[in-house]
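Hi,

I'm pasting everything inline rather than attaching a file, because the server keeps stripping attachments. The sequence lines come first, and each chain or strand is labelled.
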Amino acid sequence: MADEVKAPTAPAVAGGTEGRSEGRTDRSDRGGRGPRPGGGPGGPREGGRKYFRRKKVCKFCVEKIEAVNYKDVRLLAQFVAESGKITPRRLTGVCTPHQRRLSKAIKQARNIALLPFAGRVQ
Amino acid sequence: MNRSYEVMFIVRPDMADEDLNKLISTLESSVTSAGGTAKSEVWGKRRLAYKVAKFNDGIFVLLIIEGSGAIVHEVERRLRVTEQVIKFITVRMDEELKRLEKIKKIRDARKKTSAAAAPVTPATAEPGTEPAPTAV
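And the predicted assembly:
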């Protein structure tokens, strides 16, 4: 199973993210499914679903969006739920460094009334 | 000492254009007289995500400043004093810009090595490619 996981990611690593420390920490974050047994892969709590449901990729890593600004509301609004809450990383598939930047940007946008603290995003 | 900041502020929607321009030019002149550079962008009237000072819309203005922290302190003081300004936020941008520059440079260097198959010294690219296969 480790081979199935690593095989698709290895060419992706070689092709897309060489020399970028962000790319490498990404892989070690998600590829840690192999050596790290903690928690189970897709989340075994979810009704006994099988291992490895469709692997989500980080939208920012794929599209190489580097700058996450509080000003681009349309991009940020994709990661905010109906209630105005920030959607967790396990649902959106964003990698950790990008999720941290995203969260900071969303909080800045909330402060300048571009996004609501609670309630629907118009 | 050249830090760059972005100050975004919201002005009451019922403010006249000329008053707005006057306000912006006052802020810009306070920056330049203290030895910095300022650039402004008016985003126009937008709907606010929540009520601010009993208003539902506001005119958004972005001010990009390069200078020391004291300059920004002065700008913020003026914004606080001005009654028409209902909200503002200051974000420091120079670290972020430096990071983006670095990434762009790495990407351009990588593009150059793939375009020219000559051993140009991309010391940044080489160590990146090597460890990747070993991770498998």
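The two ends of chain B are 45 Å apart (CA to CA).

If the labels don't parse on your end, tell me and I'll reformat.
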